[in-house]
Amino acid sequence: MKLPVSASLSLSPFLALAAPDCNATVDVAVVGGGLSGLAAARSLLDAGKSVVVLEARNRVGGRVKNFNLTNGGVVELGAAFVGPTQDHVLALAADLDLGVFDEYYVGDNVLYADSQRSTYSSDLPIPPADDTTTLELLNLVTQLDTLAGQLDPNTPFTNPNASIYDSLTFASWLSNITTTPAALDVTTTATTAVFSAEPSELSLLYVLAYIASAGNETTPGTFERLIGVTDAAQQSRIVGGTGLLASGLADRIGHDKIVLNAPVRSIASGPAGGYVVTSPEASYSVEATDVIVAMSPPLAARISYDPPLPASRDQLTQRMFMGALGKAIAVYDTPFWRSANLTGQAVSDSGATRATYDDSPEDASYGALLGFVEADEMRALDDASDEAIQAAVQQDFVNYFGPQAADVKQWVIQRWDNEVWSRGAPVALAGPGTLTKYGEALRKPVGGIHWAGTETAAYWTGYMDGALRGGQRAAAEILGSG
Question: Which of 204, 201, 215 is nearest to 162 (CA)?
């Protein structure tokens, strides 16, 4: 029997046990209880600062969220993978004694192109194609890595060619690099898989900066690390789900320092200096010497600031936009595709979901296929019913993995576009002209207001590692100022 379940109806995996007294006074108020805000709070508390975290949702974690299956298993509705050079998230997992296991990647991948299914070895860096297409794809990746390697991940907008890169969409640049439809299709699928946006929406400079961020202080970022599994961003997963990272951080911080169901509506200068941070829904206000806003720029812009923010910051938040992302997870009795020597990964040029992964647990006690619904495909389904999405994705899975894919025991559907405190995922993006004109405002403090979030990270922007880095950096700004 199939049990369709809407992720929006799941019980919260973490509820606050207590909340700070209303009208409190603290050193730092942190707005946002995702990984970035929690990381900032922990750094500040470790340094002896008093802190309160205000979170709009009824849980911590932000775009990191576990979901409990009816079979006793767990899947992630948001960020799910970790990989090499993501040093901060791997360190957090170790600190919380959370296990890490390899994403299943044994056998062949599926390529579904022009309504025809084929398979290819997972050892190949790109899907097989004619010689012209293959050469174009390899050249494209080389050029992306070379251009990204010339950027400073901390300040990509200062590169001598930044204004040129930022005047182009990624799509317009691709049109000059690729000549075959197959090369363009593969590149478009890879783009939407990484950014949850179409190439025509993204600035070339933003894409290059994102690639440059896919490393660390000693290892340059590469496009291959963004899209790959082995030695790449999708290499590993967290035992028990990534939601344990957020709940574990919250445990270390202390539940009494976290206020849930408290969307912050205003941040205003206080009568005696500092700031007053207010959540009318929670009937809660706190006075703080400093504030860290650990939210995506588009959502941070919905807070009222008094005095108003500088024009550069406001213009930045008007221009950055969230990716369009959903996840459709089909649960099976077994990971049946493995017996057919398939990895569970598919790449397609059509369908609602065009990139899939094996989402089964480490012990393979049941099977799960994860399908990403992204960019224009997600926007087309934002208002559809869960049943309509299930039907569309099921047909895709049957196309990719055969008729057994129709024997789904449970569906889990998550649409981040429709989450009121996210309005998209995995990250806020930038189109042409944004970074060169306003990029400096992404991290630059405004008085005692500091900015966190994965968007502010120099490394692993858009990932959990970037979220942790952004929070820790914002905390260090405050601690460095005394």
Answer: 204
